[in-house]
Design a protein that fits this description.
By secondary structure, the protein is an all-beta fold. It is built from no helices and 11 strands. The mean pLDDT is about 95.
Length: about 130
């Protein structure tokens, strides 16, 4: 069982920045690819960004390209999502998730992920 603990959400003005963290204490963190997703009430959970176990390959949703950066520090068992130039439409609950590095599924798919964090609210005011 992998426990993911998210932090860093909050309220920010349009154009501001936040950094989300996702910690996986006590596990072989480098064995997992990581993803960040977001969800607003009444809508599906959508991909935001993914990163492979080595940190070498990243992928982003079109809506956040150029503004968000996903990264990881395997020595600290932590993944990050740096969010810059935030917009009101970025308001959502953000979830981190872990997928086996050997998953046969696309990291853009919810199916790839076996472990999820509890979610952290990000609110961008206009």
């Amino acid at each position: 069982q992998v426990q993911l603990v998210e932090s860093g959400g909050g309220l920010v003005q349009t154009g501001g920045s936040l950094r989300l963290s996702c910690a996986a204490p006590g596990r072989a963190f480098s064995m997992y690819a990581m993803g960040w997703f977001r969800q607003v009430p009444g809508k599906e959970r959508d991909i935001v960004a993914t990163i492979r176990w080595s940190g070498g390959n990243t992928d982003y949703a079109d809506a956040v390209k150029g503004r968000f950066t996903i990264s990881r520090d395997n020595a600290k068992n932590t993944a990050y999502l740096q969010m810059n130039t935030l917009k009101p439409e970025d308001t959502a609950v953000y979830y981190c998730a872990a997928a086996s590095r050997y998953t046969p599924y696309s990291l853009r798919s919810l199916t790839a992920y076996g472990y999820w964090g509890q979610g952290t609210q990000v609110t961008v005011s206009s």
